[in-house]
UniProtKB/TrEMBL annotation:
Main localization category: mitochondrion
Localization annotation: Mitochondrion matrix, Mitochondrion nucleoid
Function comment: Zinc phosphodiesterase, which displays mitochondrial tRNA 3'-processing endonuclease activity. Involved in tRNA maturation, by removing a 3'-trailer from precursor tRNA. Associates with mitochondrial DNA complexes at the nucleoids to initiate RNA processing and ribosome assembly.
A Pfam match: Lactamase_B_4
Stretches that traverse the bilayer: none
Identification of the protein by name: Zinc phosphodiesterase ELAC protein 2
Enzyme class: hydrolase
Organism annotation: Eleutherodactylus coqui
Gene3D superfamilies in UniProt: Ribonuclease Z/Hydroxyacylglutathione hydrolase-like
Amino acid sequence: MGFSGLLWRRLSRVLAMSQAEARAFSARKTKVAKEPLRHIKNRAKQEAGDRHGPAVVYVQVVAAGSRDAGASVYLFSDHRRYLFNCGEGVQRLMHENKMKLSRLDNIFITRMDWANVGGLSGVLLTLRDVGLPNCVISGPPQLKQFLQAIKIYCGPMDGLSVDVRPYTGPLYSDETMSVTQVPTFTSNGPLPSLSQQCEGGESHSELRQGRTSPDVMHIPRDLRKRFSKGSPPCVISYICKLHDRKGHFLVLKAKEMGLPVGTKEIGPIITELKANKSVTYNGKEVSPSDVLSPDIPGPTFIVVECPSEDFITPLTENVAWKRYLEGKEEASAALVIHMTPEHVLNHTTYRQWMERFGPGTEHLLLNEHTSTVHNLSSYKVQSQLHLIHPDIFPQLPQIRPRDEASEVPGVRAECLLKYQLRPKMEWQRDQVTQNHTCAFVKEAMELPNFRTALEECQSLLKSDDVPAKEGNAQYPEVVFLGTGSAIPMKTRNVSCTLVHVSPSALMLLDCGEGTFGQLHRHYGDRVDDILSQLSAVFVSHIHADHHTGLLRVLLERERALASLGKPFTPVLVVGPTVLMSWLNLYHDNCQEVLHNIR
């Protein structure tokens, strides 16, 4: 039997795997943590002792809302780390920019949409592997079903306890802040019906019957059950109130009051005073106000997503905002983060609602009207490799919004932009990413012997030893969008290969997380044309790094066809039968996607 026969036998075995076999095959090996992570041990000590409230807290933009990266923000405090939304590519951005995933134990999701949860499975696998004991995810009602569904390809989360905090649950509070979930519902009807016909006459139900493995019937009934058709779409906003920071111990005043400053006796006395209790020393009573500076009030910030005009009225009329719109300084919001498209920001009602927060509130705007650069390392490496072979490594285009941003009052998000909440409230731009191609080229040219090696390479390329193209032959053309890394990293990405079969047809071989982002960065404004030519996707196996970019590609392709005015046609997806089980569960419980597949 030749090589092709052996290859086909191997592929046939993978495609025919049962769900149980695929789970075992796909499960990433769990790394056993030898001991608790250092920050967890330190936190336990801190909780057992004096709690002063965090001294440093800031919000930082991970992804600024651009089409290639989505919208995500990171909250840093001395005690904990938090993430708001976790779309595809977030893990890679955090890794590149040294935002430690090992400290991330709270994730907040604003809406059940692949743009907000596409990177969640990869992040949870990494948290499990680094030994984090637990992670809490807050958000819309479908989260539980989503987390159950991803077990099909993630395997068990042994060692990591993942809890879901529903919006109906009690107020969340830890040593950094308290968080209130504010649900917003739109009454404009349920999601599109499953009976809606696909292009070509095949209905969703027919597609499901024809493509679903028998294994899907063994999935628990509550996971296969669709949300009731009357359930309106839901978006969750978050009101985050930092705890007050305890006042400082005033050493000079304490000495004047006769307290034993500098001795072992002072420790328990300070503890009592900071617990707002008076103490008596040498017959003299000392109250907290005598030797402590006033407490520093904790500011409030709000995270809002308003995905469409249907949500504007129920969102802006929600009574949860009342206290922040009354103009009282003690109840004002320091920052409102808007994950909101431009047409909603421009709506009169939404603008008026923003203005009612008052002049003391800053507004951070995250949407596609940004030209910030994400994944700067990719731009740097590509510009340096471009020196070696411009045809193989073309310069990546600068991504700019198609339309000019409107004059909405607020600050446009940029990758790594910070808003510091404590100790001083201010914007900080020192880490904002900038694409300086000339600086990257200069850095490469200054490497020892690089110029000489580059000249030799260029001379070789011009020699007769290198075969030239025959005529204008361009096809097939292969574009490596990933490097086959198991985990998205700074200069590496997971598995994905784009094959241009002809001028009007192309296919993807595997479709790992971040595939659409890579396509968008590589082709820039041409990405819609490229997506419109996509006719097939082949998924080799059910490992997360081989297929978790599929849904984003399918959804963006649907958008591209509509934008170009082209008729919609579904994509042929070839993969293991268990892949269809996963797609069915996501479609049934989270977001309708099956009409994109044939």
